[in-house]
Amino acid sequence: xxxxxxxxxxxxxxxxxxxxxxxxxxxxxxxxxxxxxxxxxxxxxxxxxxxxxxxxxxxxxxxxxxxxxxxxxxxxxxxxxxxxxxxxxxxxxxxxxxxxxxxxxxxxxxxxxxxxxxxxxxxxxxxxxxxxxxxxxxxxxxxxxxxxxxxxxxxxxxxxxxxxxxxxxxxxxxxxxxxxxxxxxxxxxxxxxxxxxxxxxxxxxxxxxxxxxxxxxxxxxxxxxxxxxxxxx
Length: 233
Fold this sequence. Notes:
- The chain is an all-alpha fold.
- It folds into two domains: 1-20 and 120-233; 32-119, no CATH class.
- The protein has 13 helices and no strands.
- It is elongated.
- The two termini are 23 Å apart.
């Protein structure tokens, strides 16, 4: 029999499940942000030289994102090439979040989300909730996540699991359960995990995709759900 997971292990998994795939809120929310830059870019935008400088500065910072000097140089160069800045803004925000530079990341993330709110409203809402989580506003984040779940419930989801919203819906349910855990609402947490299990039972392909993205060396998402159902009883 395998040993029961430690509290520290469960805590690390909670963090993984709550914050995992932050690129969903920035990456998927800004799908298409770089489109439409092609033909008109060099006709009305910055010069080829400015673009090349911005690209080189961005590459240097990407290789060493902890370097504050490289970050400032990148910001200065990229600001001179607005289309390039828009195209890479979400990536920069994500890197800053990973580095725990919340104050610098959030304004960039908010800009990225505002640009695509009309085209991808659900992803934008998921992203806005992610910002609340980063700020520690867990109760408000929970309320927003539950509201998103209700909005998505009554809309038909396409056959494409990602663009159709199925994966986002599953991630949002996992987020709700994790937030209920943080807020120490046992009944709410158990109800959320049950809803996730029912979703996975009815949608095998979706379950396989989501479960594979939430895997850890010593515990799968399924194992974690079982453990949390016991501990929240």
